[in-house]
Amino acid sequence: MNRPKLRFDALKRLLNIQVPSVLVAVITFPALVALITLVPRMRPSPYFVELLLVSYLASFVFLEYPMRNNKLFSLHLSYRLTLYLLVLFDVFLYVLAYNYLGLAGVPTFLGIGLITLLFGPRIGASSAVYHSIVMAYVAGMSIRSFAWLVGVGVLTAFLLRNVFYRSTVAKMALYMSLVNTGWYVLNRLGMGLGPAFREFLFAVANPLACSVILVGLLPYVELASRIYSNIGLTELGNLSHPLLKLLSMKAPGTYFHSVMMANIAEMAAESIGANPVLARTASYYHDIGKVRRPEYFTENQSGRENPHEKLSPWVSNLVLNEHV
Prior knowledge:
The chain has helices spanning 9-15, 19-38, 48-68, 77-101, 108-119, 121-139, 143-159, 166-190, 197-225, 230-236, 242-250, 252-272, 276-285, 313-322. The protein is mostly helical.
C-alpha cells in the first residue's frame, strides 16, 4: 500500500514567491539598510553585512509571509511596492527620531498607522514587529525598549483596524497619547528616576502630532499608489461626488441600479466579514461607463425606442462592451 505523501502547505506558501516579489525585496531592502547607515550616531560600517542579513530574515518572516496570505498583494505589484517603500520610509524616520528625540519621539503612530489604514491590521502588526527588530539592532536598544516598541506598534494597528473617518484617527491618537504617558511615568519610576519634562512632552505630543501628519499625508499616498484606505473609499462613496452626480443626471436608471446594488453588496459583505465600504463604493462606480451612451441601456430608455434595433449585432456588441 502506498503511503500518503505529507503535504507541507504552509511551507509551500512560504516558499512560493513570485519573481517580481523577489526583485522588489532584493532592490528595496539593501536601500533600506543603506539609508539607515547614513543616519548620524549609528553603528559603524563593519556591521553592514549583519544588518543586511537581519533585514532580509525579518522581512521574509514578518513581511513577505504575511503578504503571501493576503489576497490584496496578488492583485498588482503596486501593493507590494507601496508597502516596502512605506517600510523604508518608516524605519528611516524611526531611527532618526530615536537618535535625536529618544524612544518617546519615535513616530510609531505615523508609520504603522499609514500601513494599517492602507493594508489592514495584520500587515500593520507584522510591519510593527519588523520595524522594531531592525531598529533594535541598529540603535542597540534594550529588551524593554524593544518590547515597548512592538507593543505600541501592535496596539496602533489594533486601534486603527476599522477607521472610516479622519476624526477617528484623532481619537485613537488621543488614546495612544494616554498610553504613552502612562508607560513613560511607570518606566521612569521603575528605574528610580524622576520625570524629565522634555521626554514627557514628547511622550504626550508624539501620537497627536503623528495623527496630524498622518491625516495630511494619507491622500497623497493614496493618489500616488491608487491604493485607498477606508477613509478614501468613504470619500469616493459620497453621493455628492461629481462623477456620481453626473451619473444621476445623464443615466438616472443606471444610478438607481447602482445605489440598489451598493445596498445589497454592503449587506452581503457584512454577512461574510468582507469590507462593506469597499463593496458599497465599488458598486456605485461599477457601471460608470454607461454615462457615455446611457440611451443604449434598458434601464435608461424609459419606454423609448431601443437604439440597438437599428444596429447590427456586431456594432451593438461593441457599444455594450464599451462601458466596461
